[in-house]
Amino acid sequence: MEPIRVHFPGSGAFHLELKRRVAEYFEGVQISPRDAAWMYLKSAILLSWTVSAYLLLITNSLAWWLTPIAAICLAVGMAGIGVSVQHDANHGGYSRNRWVNRLFGCCLDVMGGSSYIWYWKHNIVHHTYTNISGIDVDVDIEPFLRLAPTQPLLRYHKYQYIYIWFIYGLLPANWHFYADYRDLVNSDIGGMPIPRPSRLVLIATLFGKLFFYGWSLILPLILYPTLPVLGLYLLTTFTLGTVLTTTFQLAHCLEETEVHVATTESNSVEAGWAEHQVRTTANFAPRNRFLTWYLGGLNYQIEHHLFPKVCHVHYPAISPIVEATCKDFGIPYQIHPTFRDALSSHVRWLYRMGRLEPVPVTELVPSA
């Protein structure tokens, strides 16, 4: 199958000016965009939280009725690591030291994912072709969900705004047992070919999977009855998937963000890459300090997409710079003031996508 190709014009005035202003900010305050002390402290807190919850479960230190609460605490800790620690590290935004990034990036492998697949699926495909249906796998979850106007409309999609939360919760189990292996074998993500891993990377990826199976299932199954172990696994992974997927979807699958469509023909985007990121992304709850801390700054998703190699602890500071630059260039900068506002917009978008109501869509322009 011929891969879909999409072309962006070269860096325009907006992108160049934006980079200049943000670089000027870091020079002015004389701090590094990475290796933030607060990030290392935060990592220690989240890792301690997660390990403590696991030890409480594996050592049977709690009354039986408290074990589901501990499993949820384990999931919440893992989600915090996912959106903060491994996310920054696998983007290269945690440290200037490549091996520090690699070390903390392996947290994803310990949690049952694959940092190798994540790099290509998230860093390359999603961050380059954001909200382009036909390439960005985050908006191509067919046939279960319809997240773009050009995708086939099936009868049961009218209920997707209700059942989608069940689909979101199954995401980690899909990573653990199917999707990562499929992508490794096919060497293809969203119609975009990815290189086959080297022997060392493949061994490291499979070792990460085995290590995850060991601590999450094999050891508990040796120590405890099967049904409680499987039940706690499902509770933990379902909670983890709900938190992770909702966080990412509230930034892109909304009424206000643009959706583009790619075809098998060669396509080009009229807006430059940076402008495309702003138009397909939205921030939410910027004044909620707890969410900003816990979600790894992903409520400042516009800043993250524009500067993925900047540690997320700096997003609140550079956000006014990005917003002002967007205003100067006439580019809409979307913000939902609260988490509830963003969630409501997401649900309304799901509701509309599940019906035949016409929705505006930006088609890519065929290249000459």
Describe the model.
This protein has one domain. By secondary structure, the chain is mainly alpha-helical. The C terminus is likely disordered. The chain starts with 5 loop residues before the first strand and ends with a strand. Helices cover 58% and strands 5% of the residues. The strands form 4 sheets. Strands 1-6-10 form a 3-stranded mixed beta sheet, with no helix packed on it. The chain is globular, with a radius of gyration of 21 Å.
Any chance you could write out the topology, listing elements then pairs?
Elements: E1 6-7, H1 13-29, H2 37-58, H3 67-91, H4 98-105, H5 107-110, H6 115-128, E2 132-133, H7 160-169, H8 171-186, E3 188-189, E4 192-193, H9 199-223, H10 226-249, E5 260-261, E6 267-268, H11 273-279, E7 283-284, H12 289-294, H13 301-306, H14 315-328, E8 335-336, H15 339-353, E9 362-363, E10 365-366
Parallel strand pairs: 1-6, 2-5, 5-9, 7-8
Antiparallel strand pairs: 3-4, 6-10
Helix pairs in contact: 1-14, 2-3, 3-4, 3-10, 7-10, 9-10
Keywords: Membrane, Transmembrane, Transmembrane helix
Transmembrane segments: 39-57, 63-87, 99-119, 161-179, 200-224, 230-251
GO molecular function, one term: oxidoreductase activity, acting on paired donors, with oxidation of a pair of donors resulting in the reduction of molecular oxygen to two molecules of water
Task: Tell me the total number of β-strands.
Answer: 10
As residue ranges, the low-confidence spans are 364-368
Order of helices and strands: EHHHHHHEHHEEHHEEHEHHHEHEE
Write down the overall mean pLDDT: 91
**What oligomeric arrangement do these chains adopt?**
single chain
Terminal Cα span: 21 Å
Proportion of residues in β-strands: 5-15%
- Rg from alpha-carbon coordinates: 21 Å
Provide the domain count: 1
